[in-house]
Structures are given as structure tokens and as C-alpha cells.
Amino acid sequence: MKTFLKLICLFSFILIFADYSNAQETEDKMNLKVSKQYKQQAAAFADSHEWVSFKYRIMNYYNDSLYWDIVTDVIIKYDDDNSMIFLNDNNLDYILITNNHYKRIDVAKNNLYDISKNRKDKSKKYKELAIFGKIANYFCDPAYFMKPIDFANTWALLHIFYNVETIDLNGSTYNKYRSKLAGYGDMVTSFVNNETNFLDSLYMEQNLDDGSTVRRYMTFYDVSYENRQGYIDSIFDFSNVEYTSYSKYDEFTMPVKTLSNQMSQGLLDYPLVNLEGDTTSIREQDGWILLNFWTTNCGPCLQHLKEYSHEKDSLGYRILENEGIKILAIEHRSNNLEHIRQIASKSNSEDIAYSAKDIMTVINIPTLGYYYLVSPNKEIVYETGDLGDYSEIINKLKVEN
Question: From the CB of residue 336, how many other CB atoms can be counted at a distance below 10 Å?
């Protein structure tokens, strides 16, 4: 009897597993079918045009608050091995990515980058900058759309497509695709115009572990198909006298992050320039110091400068300064004092703002915004990527004292 029951259980398990496998296989086939249709529309658009330019607007909401709103001018050339992508952020950051070069003009920071594809470059800077940099930031959610097909493969493979339906919207017919980014939990809805095969807009939603919701709205507009090669060449003429004062970097001169998080002699004596153009150093500072490394395009960094400002408005002092800690807010990527002043003034942080371009060559800065607490005898006693409510720093101060 026991043997018979075991056989019944085994047979039932096999049937359940078979049903599950068939259902899973059916779902996988449907996902592949939707994905194939999406890729075919992207390829049809690329095959129909050599050039396309447009404005790309991204509105990012954290819960119900607008966190940032960015409009970027984009130019794309579809030409097999000679494809290229051009990006322009508010005339402050120009980027050109081809199969062989990553070129960038960072107007805000007075920097020029010209990184070539180099087989001998073991650090793979070209790949890191060109493929995992701005391309990922701007074009992850559109998957195959809005970039040359040869640039698309990395992120398109992360998208799992599971639904498509045809809808009428504002007098046009669209394919409404549903997909998600594997491993990220992002739910993406894409609207592709069936007449032009152009990706009109996307909506992304992500639920975070803390219960918060991130929503991102992306729209593409002011579309043109004219040849823009002359315009791109004029922007990336690095011999232009306009760029005389800019720092120039290639694969051999790019500043690299040191693995050290110690107070080296190089760090102690690294020139820190305030907004009046006066130079000092960490060695010249007395007492406790908070090294607040930030950069002008880092959202969390700017938010923290605003928190300093809110403290002064409500209390009349910055909390850390009241505890005897001097704040050095060091912009570590730029020496454009006027631009730093413009950004710092928005949070009344001019008095603590400094420029120390490329200081990451003598101290590890793991994220765009990072903090080191330095004791009076010039030792790092605490570090963090998030100051929070300062409790950890203040407790550390009390222990050391």
C-alpha cells in the first residue's frame, strides 16, 4: 500500500511539474515574441534613417516630489560600424560616442576628454566611459530604441518583455509594450508609433525596499532627420581657442582613483581653492575637519548642501560647525570657480565651497558624494557615503575627545 501511495505521489508531482514547465515554456515563448516585435520596430526605424535628432526629456519623481527634470539634445547616426551618438546637456556637457572614440567636453568643469579604443588599454577606459557611462544613464530603459543597434545589445538583454497591445492615442496608433529590467524590478511601459516606428515616450516605475516609489517619465520630441555632421565637427574641434584653458585627458592622463583612504602627504598638501581664488590645504587647517567631497552634477551632494543651508536658516548655525567641526565642501572634478559659485549659492554654501580638481588621485572617493572626518592630528577617524543625521560623526567626536 505504501509503495502504491508513493507511486501516486510521484505521478502527481510529475504531472504538476509538467504543467508548470509547459506554462513556463508558453510564457517564455510569449516574452520572446514580444521582445522580437519590439526589436523589429527598432530595427525598422534605424533602417529607415541615417540621421535622427530630437530632444529627450526625463522627469524623475521620488514618491510625489519632482526630483529632477532634464532635457537633452540627442543626435544619432545609424551607419553600421560608423554609428555615433551625440548628447548635449544644457550646453554644459557635450558627449560624442562612436565605435572607436569617447569624446566629451565638460564646459562646467573646463575638461576635455578624448578616449580612443585601444587594444593595449588594460583598464578598458573606453568601454567604461562609452558603454557604461552616459549611454546607460540615458538609454537603459528604451532598450533597442534611440541608439544605434550596435550599442544596444548590453541593456536590451536586461529587458524582459511580457506584453504588447495596440492602442489609439491622440489620433495615432501605438504599440504599448510592457517590460522590466532583470534584477532591478523596474516596470517599463514603452509607446512606439506604428506609423513611424519612433519611440514616443516611456514610463518607468520602481518600488524601493523602504516603501518609496520612483517614477520616471521620458518623452522624445522635436524630431528631425537632417544631416548634423557639420554641427558635431564644429563642437568637437579641440583646436578651438575656446578650449585653451581646458584640462585635456586621454586614456593615459585620465585621473584615477587611488585605493588609499589615508591622509597621505599628497592629500595634506593638495591645493584647495576657495571661491575668492585663495589657496589653502588640509595641512593648514586646525581642529576637526569634515572633508565633504561633492560635484555639481551629484543630486544627493546638492541635497546635502541644501540641508546645511536649512540648518543655518532654522538654527542660525550648521550643526557640525556648532560641534567644532570645520566643513570643507570640496568639488573634486572642476576648477571652474564661477560655475561652482553658481551652484553653491543656491544653498548659501559659498563660504565652505572649494575646488580641488582631480584630488581623487590622492584619496579614494568611492561615490560622487563622500565624507571623511579628520581629527586635529590629521587622521581619518570616520568615513561614510551618507551623513544621515550626523549622529555617527558626533558620537565619534565624543569618543575621540
Answer: 23
